[in-house]
Prior knowledge:
mainly beta
Amino acid sequence: MSELHKPGEDNQKPGKYTETGPQGGKIPKPREVKIDPGDRLPPTQKPGNKWKRK
């Protein structure tokens, strides 16, 4: 299982991230984002959700 990251975390590996539930479960209509080096992870649609690297 991939590591989960909170919104706003800094200095994560660049790449694509998918929004998941608080414990990594699937959610309806998850957001997908691409971050570059030095970017912060954006806010999620719902408080408590996390980001998982693809």
